[in-house]
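To whoever is on call:

I kicked off a structure prediction for a single chain this morning and the downstream step that reads the tokens threw a length-mismatch warning. I double-checked the sequence; it's 211 residues and nothing unusual in it as far as I can see. Pasting both halves so you can look.
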Amino acid sequence: MLVYHYTAVGDSLTFGFGAMPGSGFVPLYRRMAEEKLQQFVAHENLGVNGLTSEELYDRIVQLPTYRYHLQQAHIITISIGGNDLIRAVKSSGGRPSREILDAALYRCQTHVANIIAYIRKVKSGGGKPYFIRAIGIYNPYPAWTEASEYVIRFNRYLVSLSDGYFRIADVYPLFSGREKELLSADGIHPNGRGYRIIAEQLNRLGYKPLA
């Protein structure tokens, strides 16, 4: 029997923080993928709460576990970037400073480009069909224009990296104005409904070249 391998890397969204067990986007998307592909999908969740883009890059480069599971994977999802924004806001005293946010955004974009390039390198020559999906970030600080600008620019950058193998699940417009409904009590992480929206957006991107 053919088995597809799904490796999820990233921050607390990949981990599923804020949702009941089994209600994060990773298990939901895995089930959707199984339904679409009509094959068993084995999965490895390497999500870490609080991870930044720099820390994810370091893990992918330094940890053999990450490289092994990425090499095996037919499906790869990445959620990263939200903690870079949160840390930048905290470092500017809890109120976004455009200068600090701009510097954080530039660093984050550089790390994300490096993450994608490194994953492609790990996958090159493997001979396995695969695709990568990244989840765009939503705005955990909807009251602040500077934070909204950061999110929009980061998501636009992600889209600029996309190609046939790498596509973006754009969740920002779906969360915008619905934060109370889709975020858990901490106002930062999605609740079960929010995670379902993320999984549905990933599912809508299709499964080429696997199906």
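Update from on-call: the warning came from a stale cache, not from the record. Cleared it. Sanity check on the structure: The CA atoms of residues 136 and 155 lie 5 Å apart.
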